[in-house]
Structure formats: structure tokens, C-alpha cells
Design goal:
single chain, 260 residues, alpha/beta, Arc Repressor Mutant, subunit A, five-stranded mixed β-sheet, 10 helices, elongated
């Protein structure tokens, strides 16, 4: 039987592949998710439409660095279409990461007619080690290896709950999806991260990259750097923040609060 690991992103896919190779498993396949479904429209998910939206929405260099993933996404889609009907499909997820949680809900719906298994790294580690684990992409191969073989089948009740969650999020079709304190994926407005960014900006010039890094540290696993750069660009355009240098190139830009 073919085993296919469905990774939520390229980083986790590389770690899963390395972990499998370390135990001599060269037969299992790993397919990476390439689209961050925690942001942007999801009411009608078409790869071409999502690509066009991404190109229009992310004008900064941090977003542009992600564009090559769309070419890989086309190849991964072809691989998924060719998966054997009796393949054992294993979805990886960390439910403290909106990106991974959204991918999980999408895959559960997309493969609703197929049996799915899940490895949820949000759950307590089976080896008893403590610590918060938020996303599969944060785990190195040696840690990923601890989870190999621990997958469980999704039952009908769980599949129904996941489908309801995804249907509600698609109906709301908000600009962002974030993880709540109750570890649920919920819709959020376009300015959701603005206050967090502004708390890291003073009247003194500060590197844009530092503001982004500090905000991500304040909200671990919640948002990508490309999203925060784009929100800073919007705040600059709105006259809330001023820029010295080109905000489209984060490392070349200093930002500060505008005088009241």
C-alpha cells in the first residue's frame, strides 16, 4: 500500500521527508501544501484565482519570495490526482498555526470521499516531553520522527465537524483566519494585526524587518512575515506610519510613527 504524507507547507514537507529517509522509508511519498489559506479569499478555491490574488495582494519582497511555490504547487496537484485509490493518506497539522489549520480543514473537505489519517502535533507528545508545539513546520526532522506511525483515522463525526468549520469560514470569507485562545480557527478582519505592529513602532526610526520579527515573536505561529510587511505598507499608505527607504524591500526600510 502506498503511503502519502500531506504536509501543510514546504518546510514541514522537507522535515517529514528527512525523517522518513532517516528510518529507511524511501517508499512513502510526501506532498507539500504551497498556499497559505489563512489569508485571502476562500469562498471559491481555484489555484489559478488564488495565484492571481497572491500576486496582486503581496507587493513586498517577502511576499514575492513565495511566488516560486506556485510553480511547485502545479506539480504537487498533479501528484495528488495520480494517488492510488487505496493509498493511505496522512495529513499533518499543528492547530496553533492558522496556515496549517486552514490546510487541514481544506484537505479534509477536498478528500471527503477518501479515508484520511491525521498526525496532530498540537496534541501532547507520546514520549511525555513537555512544551508547546504549535506547528509541524517548527519541528526538526528528529522531532518529526517521533510522530511517524502515530497517525489515527478521522471518524465520521470528526469529518463532519471539520466540514462545518470550513464551510463557515468559507461563507465568512474574511481577509484573515487566526487561531483563537480556544484553539479554534476563526475569521479576522484586515486590520487584525495592525495594533500589534503599532505597539512595536515608536517615533524613532526602526528597521521594518525588526518590527516584523518582534511582532511574530509576540504572536508565535500566527502569521507570516509577508502578511505583516503588507500591513505595514498599508499603514504607510494610510499615513499612520512613515517610511525612510522603500517599504517594498523590508531590509532597506526604516519606519516610525507619524507625529500626532
Amino acid at each position: 500500500m502506498t503511503i502519502v504524507h500531506l504536509a501543510p507547507n514546504a518546510t514541514s514537507a522537507a522535515s517529514i521527508r528527512a525523517a522518513l529517509d532517516a528510518v529507511g522509508d524511501s517508499g512513502s511519498e510526501v506532498v507539500a501544501g504551497r498556499d497559505d489559506l489563512s489569508c485571502g479569499p476562500i469562498d471559491h478555491i481555484d489555484q489559478g484565482d488564488r495565484r492571481a490574488w497572491w500576486i496582486a495582494a503581496f507587493t513586498g519582497d517577502m511576499g514575492r519570495r513565495q511566488l516560486h511555490l506556485w510553480d511547485l504547487a502545479d506539480k504537487d496537484t498533479q501528484r495528488l490526482v495520480g494517488i492510488d485509490a487505496d493509498a493511505r493518506m496522512i495529513v499533518w497539522v499543528g492547530r496553533r498555526s492558522p496556515e496549517e489549520y486552514a490546510s487541514y480543514l481544506f484537505l479534509a473537505e477536498h478528500f471527503r470521499l477518501r479515508q484520511l489519517h491525521v498526525i496532530d502535533v498540537t496534541a501532547p507528545r507520546h514520549d511525555g516531553e513537555t512544551g508547546v508545539i504549535g506547528k509541524a513546520a517548527a519541528l526538526p526532522p528528529i522531532r518529526i520522527g517521533d510522530y511517524l506511525g502515530s497517525e489515527r483515522a478521522l471518524d465520521d463525526n470528526e469529518r463532519s465537524e471539520l466540514a462545518q468549520q470550513w464551510s463557515m469560514l468559507r461563507t465568512e470569507n474574511a481577509p484573515f483566519r487566526v487561531v483563537s485562545a480556544a484553539t479554534q480557527l476563526v475569521s479576522a478582519p484586515i486590520d487584525h494585526f495592525d495594533s500589534a505592529l503599532l505597539t512595536r513602532i515608536s517615533s524613532e526610526p526602526k528597521p521594518m524587518t525588526k518590527v516584523i520579527a518582534e511582532t511574530m515573536a509576540d504572536h508565535p505561529f500566527q502569521v507570516g512575515d509577508y502578511v505583516l510587511q503588507q500591513r505595514l505598507i498599508a499603514l504607510i499608505d494610510a499615513g499612520v506610519v512613515s517610511a525612510e527607504g522603500d517599504p517594498m524591500t523590508a531590509r532597506m526600510c526604516l519606519i516610525r510613527r507619524m507625529s500626532q
